[in-house]
Design a protein that fits this description.
Elements lengths: L5 H6 L8 E4 L6 E5 L5 E9 L2 E9 L5 H16 L4 H10 L3 H16 L2 H19 L9 H12 L3 H20 L26 H16 L5 H13 L3 H6 L5 E2 L4 E4 L7 E4 L2 H8 L24 H10 L8 H13 L4 H8 L4 H4 L3 H4 L1 H19 L6 E3 L4 E3 L4
Antiparallel strand pairs: 1-2, 2-3, 3-4, 5-6, 6-7, 8-9
Amino acid sequence: MAKITKRLVDSLRPDPERDVWAWDDEIKGFGVRVKPSGHKGYLVQYRAQGRTRRFTLGAHGKLTPEQARRLAQKKLGEVAEGGDPAEERRRGRQALTVRELAKRYMDEHAIPKKKPASTFRDERLLERFILPALGNRKIKTISRTDVAQLHHKIGQETPTQANRTLAVLSKMLTLAIRWGLYEGENPCRHIERFKESKRERYLNQDELARLGAAIHKAEGSKQISPTAAAALRLLTLTGMRLGEVLSLQWAWIDSQRGVIFFPDSKTGQKVTALGGPALELLDNLPRTAGNPHVFPGQKFGRSLQSLNVPWRLVRDKAGLKGVRLHDLRHTHASVGAAAGLSLPVIGALLGHTQAATTQRYAHLAQDPVKQAADQVASLIDSAMRAPAKRKVVDIYKGKKGQHEE
């Protein structure tokens, strides 16, 4: 034993049959090992939980003896406080990466427990944002700063996507804690979400006419398939969710009663009423042998997976820049509200389970009331402008009466 210095380490020679050791006489447990290959490395040796442990500090040449000495003092200090640096390093090497956690999240949570549309959105958020930024990182190294920076970066262009990405990452890490893969507080906590404003975009009669013409023209020129064209028409005619239309099966349709029985949807089991044009559309669609879906996809037995490409083409042809597929659902509700349908009826048409969800159309449902207010106000205005002693209609009692003005 002697104080470990550069001169001492340089003087050590390898033994072809065994490791050569030298221990420091000032710091107990601090030493240097020379392997038969000639590699020299610094380490600390200590006891933890009744076992002798060794923790490699670094190679000679990458660390000077003084740097290794300071690092040894730090690690031995952790041991004195009940720590075990070697065990922590082992756990760190075995810790999952974000990419590995994402796979387990999809396999054990998203796919078996979430709706297909939600699973698809989670997968897209992982591929577009989370994995490129954090995929190769160990989950235990992810800090609140890392998450905040990712959230902020995405939010500069798409605040809503940033919030959805944060939600997926937060759920992944919550599950990691539940599965015993992560210790400590979820780093996604206390990160302030971006403010989101609900988009309310409704197509008017002129825009609906342009949309219908664009679908017809695109289908006729074979720019979109008849299947995609029919799906877009059904979305507009029924106000159904995109996932409901894409997953629709012939067995769920009762043409006699004019309804669709969904065994499962975003809100669970539900019945959707079909208007005459929607029923006619479905009655005229061909059926594909061996495929139960109304809108079959390219793979045998599978449904159409997406309408994004045909929708963008049709939308641009119709001059409806920025309109989303989901806005067709809003349009269906807005037409009903403007026609005087009550909010409960509109909610039933759309399959809402919460009255608050339908409340966004309340201002549209007031249009018939505004028309009535205009009629009443016009009568009152006419009476107030009439010449003196003119006979006017008693608008309050609903019968004619003689009044002096």
